[in-house]
């Protein structure tokens, strides 16, 4: 009975993946027509200095469609760009889908649960190494690049170490739910005490299934009821939606030395970039030279906290750049 259910469920998921992929391709295609962009094909990269000139620039949705099509049916991303929650997730964390150079990008926009995460992590064959006295796990290519960057940093009298124990790298699905709740629950209490939410509204959001809960929080934030740690900005700048964290894909690392521009440059030379706006210690392994990032629909944004490479389809959040 359970096996039969699982077979049906699997067939249903596969169908949804195929349909969702087509919708990304379709939506992306329309965006391309409007922008007159290119097809995201690789060209000879410009040298990494002066990267903003003579660069091939692609529209993010279009570059993503091209990348997915190239990967083929085996690793299509279930991410319907027209679903507002999926859209936000893509805009905030979408750079990871371009992970290259031996890295396996996540197979879904949002992992649905622990079982899906565990099976992806098993297949990705995590490599475990001790870094700065902490055992961390990453995909093998990401680990090799991180260790090479660390050797280079140490040769310059610098270092690259985990910011927050083992959680700096691999996380499980339950970790992402716990971290989400660590922002959600205090914020519900805060806004209830402020009179912006009634007891019933706060309770309703608290009880929603995860996916609906993310949608409800993003909707409240549109009205200025923010769920970040200090209640001043979106929860997504504070913590990933459950199942959407790049740490689940074993391609993210939170570095203690993120504030040092020289460390960031070394990490960038080894394919590690900050791709989540305002998440300052968080680096993503893309395995690409910096000069190639615009061809994948990523744009460089400069903030008071330094540079980030984010999807160029992202909503404009000028107030964030001015904060801090
Ligand atoms: Zn992180």
Explain how this protein is built.
The chain contains ten helices and seven strands. The chain is mostly helical and 324 residues long. It has two domains: 1-130 and 273-324, no CATH class; 173-237, no CATH class. A three-stranded antiparallel beta sheet has the order 3-5-4. Strand 1 and strand 2 form a beta hairpin. Helix 1 (2-35) packs across helix 2 (60-71), helix 5 crosses helix 9 and helix 6 (173-193) runs antiparallel to helix 7. It is globular. The chain binds zinc ion. Residues 247, 252, 254, 282 line the site of zinc ion.
Key features of this structure:
two-stranded antiparallel ribbon; globular; 324 residues; 10% strand; single chain; disordered N terminus; 2 domains; three-stranded antiparallel β-sheet; mainly alpha; disordered C terminus; binds zinc ion
Layout of helices and strands, plus pairs?
Elements: H1 2-35, H2 60-71, H3 84-93, H4 114-124, E1 127-131, E2 134-138, H5 140-155, H6 173-193, H7 199-207, H8 210-222, E3 252-254, H9 261-269, E4 272-273, E5 282-285, E6 298-303, E7 306-311, H10 318-322
Antiparallel strand pairs: 1-2, 3-5, 4-5, 6-7
Helix pairs in contact: 1-2, 5-9, 6-7
Zinc ion binds at residues 247, 252, 254, 282.
């Amino acid at each position: 009975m359970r096996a039969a259910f699982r077979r049906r469920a699997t067939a249903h998921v596969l169908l949804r993946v195929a349909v969702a992929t087509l919708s990304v391709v379709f939506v992306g295609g329309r965006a391309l027509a409007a922008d007159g962009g290119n097809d995201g094909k690789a060209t000879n990269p410009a040298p990494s200095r002066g990267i903003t000139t003579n660069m091939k620039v692609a529209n993010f949705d279009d570059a993503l469609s091209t990348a997915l099509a190239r990967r083929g049916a085996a690793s299509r991303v279930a991410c319907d760009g027209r679903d507002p929650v999926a859209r936000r997730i893509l805009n905030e964390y979408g750079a990871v889908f371009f992970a290259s150079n031996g890295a396996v990008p996540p197979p879904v926009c949002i992992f649905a649960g622990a079982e899906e995460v565990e099976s992806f992590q098993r297949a990705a064959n995590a490599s475990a190494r001790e870094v700065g006295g902490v055992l961390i796990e990453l995909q093998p290519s990401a680990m090799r690049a991180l260790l090479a960057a660390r050797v280079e940093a140490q040769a310059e009298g610098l270092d690259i170490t985990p910011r927050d124990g083992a959680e700096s790298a691999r996380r499980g699905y339950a970790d992402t739910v716990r971290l989400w709740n660590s922002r959600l629950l205090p914020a519900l209490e805060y806004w209830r005490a402020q009179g912006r939410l009634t007891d019933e509204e706060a309770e309703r959001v608290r009880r929603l299934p995860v996916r609906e809960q993310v949608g409800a929080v993003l909707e409240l934030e549109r009205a200025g009821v923010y769920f970040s740690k200090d209640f001043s900005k979106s929860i997504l700048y504070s913590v990933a939606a459950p199942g959407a964290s790049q740490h689940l894909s074993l391609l993210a690392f939170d570095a203690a030395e993120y504030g040092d521009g020289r460390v960031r440059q070394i990490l960038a030379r080894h394919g590690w970039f900050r791709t989540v706006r305002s998440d300052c210690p968080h680096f993503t392994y893309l395995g690409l030279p910096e000069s190639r990032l615009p061809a994948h629909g990523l744009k460089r944004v400069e903030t008071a906290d330094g540079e980030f490479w984010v999807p160029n389809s992202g909503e404009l959040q000028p107030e964030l750049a001015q904060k801090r």
